[in-house]
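Pasting as-is:
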Amino acid sequence: MSQAPKFLRDFLVYLTAIKGKSQRTRKEYEYDLSLFFRFLIAQKEHENLDTIMEISIAHYTVEDLRDITLEDLYLFLEYCEMTRHNNAATRARKVATFKSFFHYLKTKKHLILENPADELEAPKLSKKQPIYMNLEESQQFMTGIQYSIHFERDYCMMTLFLNLGIRVSELCALNLTSIHDDIITIQGKGDKERNLFLNKSCINALHSYLKIRDNYLKNTDNKALFLSQKGTRLTRQTISKLVRKINLQSGLEKEHLTPHKLRHTSATLLYRSGADIRSLQQILGHSNISTTQIYTHVENKEIQRVIMEHPMNDLSKSTKQ
């Protein structure tokens, strides 16, 4: 980042300090904008796009920013799709990056008079139904933990996933101080906190794990709730590998099962058990309720199946006889 232009460094600081974006989001924005500036330099100087990552953006100026047009953005998105094989979701993220960045340049820094991203549209995303486990599959998945040498820890983590629907990043960020009796404080996207009630399963699993948690401490006073064998905070990658291992050991072998699929499973089970959409939004930490509504679509599919299997569905056949 030290070699990035000052206006880009300032924008990235603004993202985290003022907008409350996570470090992960900040890095994604930095990558998108750096790649875009490299692309524009390559186009202007007729450089080979195969070596685009070697192009320096240190000397990209405010005057260069003012020359950017909507057509430049379209051309870059086409390059991302055709050459870099970015899917619609990845390109949509880049559109969001551009809209945020150029809005900042115009309204906060007053560095540009016209916003080239004003009319920029995001690629249309297909509405995919979330992949999840039903109740029986969830119960079978949990049986796979019995083979783990870290049973209490792993059982506790999977219990929190399936009962609370938290994100893997949120689980990794949990500290001992996140637990207050029967309430757990979750640090969500954009550092937004939400408090969730712990049910009996979660409380029992936490109690069992906390009794042996000190076994993971290695001459350090680590505040993380879940620790590795080395006494360090568990990473997203480690937990993803663990989910795959439990999936295999349980004999379920659910295709492409990830921590995020456990979140989908929890949300679907909650909705089917009677949770209203607003409560589900609060539990999952969605800023926009339209994100939560994918679980109502799952339920609608189930309703359609039930109606189609209604015994009266074949009544028309019997009346013709």
